[in-house]
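Posting for a labmate who doesn't have an account.
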Amino acid sequence: MDIQSKAMDIQSKTMDIQSKAMDIQSKAMDIQSKAMDIESKAIDIEGKAMDIQSKAMDIQSKAMDIQSKAMDIQSKAMDIESKAMDIESKTIDIESKTIDIESKTIDIESKTIDIQSKTIDIQSKTIDIESRPIDIESNPIDIDSKTIAVLCTTYNKPLDN
């Protein structure tokens, strides 16, 4: 019986070891299940990370488009500024020419007034001369050549020396 007792004892120990092995196997399966859950979550996180990366690339692309458009706008603004400066320069030239024209107009008006004044003087002398009886032989009048020329022109007669 001693052998049988030992065999039963070995069988009992084997069953204990087998039970412990089953506990270990159960724990290993739990760990494996948790590892699979973690791996699944990691795959989800990786997918989300790829989505975020894709969105980031879209945003970066849009930012580059905006930057390009901003540069186009800046270039157009510089063109407009250049044209505005050209217009301003031309406006200054026109204003300068206008001032010159106004100055020349004033000069012409001044000369016109002088001519009118001289015309009035000549008309006055003409009226004075016409109103007096002239006897050139007995009463010579000192008339300058310009006055004679004006009188001849006034009466539409040729100038005789």
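Reply:
Got it, the structure tokens are right above this. The CA atoms of residues 99 and 105 lie 10 Å apart.
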